[in-house]
């Protein structure tokens, strides 16, 4: 079976996405009338976001080993696939009317702040490694 191997950056991004999803769930519970619909919306949107990030990671790993034109075509095709899968999932989830649509949208938007947070955390981690490395050399 084909196991999913993801990069360290992707792992950190997924942790941030899930963490912000939990925070959004907790905060939203206080501002909504139907808690279950809200939680289903956030969980659905966060789940779709996690799948999109994993698909993006796999796309980039494959594209790196291709020539320029093939990589450009492959990444465009994968982007289109991720977009259509997201649209199909959102439509299917929205049609059921058992999910808070605002929660779903927030779950889908979580990767953007998660990316900034991941970059900040990784930069901080690299900086600590540089400082630790300099101290060990002396």
List its salient traits.
138 residues; mainly alpha; 5 helices; 85% helix
Question: Distance N terminus to C terminus?
Answer: 48 Å
Stretches where pLDDT is under 50 for at least 5 consecutive residues are none
**Helicity range:** over 70%
Question: What is the ordering of alpha helices and beta strands?
Answer: HHHHH
- Work out the number of β strands: 0
Count up the helices. Answer: 5
Helix/strand-derived category reads mainly alpha
Query: What is the rounded Rg?
Result: 18 Å
| Main beta-sheet strand count, sense and barrel state | none
Overall pLDDT metric: 89
Q: Structurally, how many domains make up the residues?
A: 1
- Percent strand equals under 5%
Which overall shape is indicated by the principal axes computed on the Cα atoms?
flat
Describe the structure.
The structure is a single chain. By secondary structure, the chain is mainly alpha-helical. Helices cover 85% and strands 0% of the residues. It has one domain. It has helices spanning 8-29, 35-64, 68-96, 101-109, 111-137. Helix 1 runs antiparallel to helix 2. The protein starts with 7 loop residues before the first helix and ends with a helix.
């Amino acid at each position: 079976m084909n196991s999913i191997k993801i990069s360290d950056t992707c792992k950190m991004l997924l942790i941030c996405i899930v963490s912000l999803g939990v925070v959004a769930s907790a905060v939203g519970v206080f501002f909504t009338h139907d808690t279950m619909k809200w939680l289903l919306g956030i969980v659905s949107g966060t789940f779709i976001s996690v799948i999109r990030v994993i698909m993006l990671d796999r796309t980039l790993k494959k594209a790196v080993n291709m020539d320029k034109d093939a990589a450009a075509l492959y990444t465009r095709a994968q982007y289109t696939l991720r977009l259509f899968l997201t649209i199909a999932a959102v439509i299917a989830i929205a049609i059921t009317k058992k999910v808070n649509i605002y929660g779903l949208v927030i779950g889908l938007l979580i990767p953007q702040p998660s990316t900034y947070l991941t970059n900040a955390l990784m930069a901080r981690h690299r900086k600590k490694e540089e400082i630790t490395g300099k101290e060990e050399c002396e």
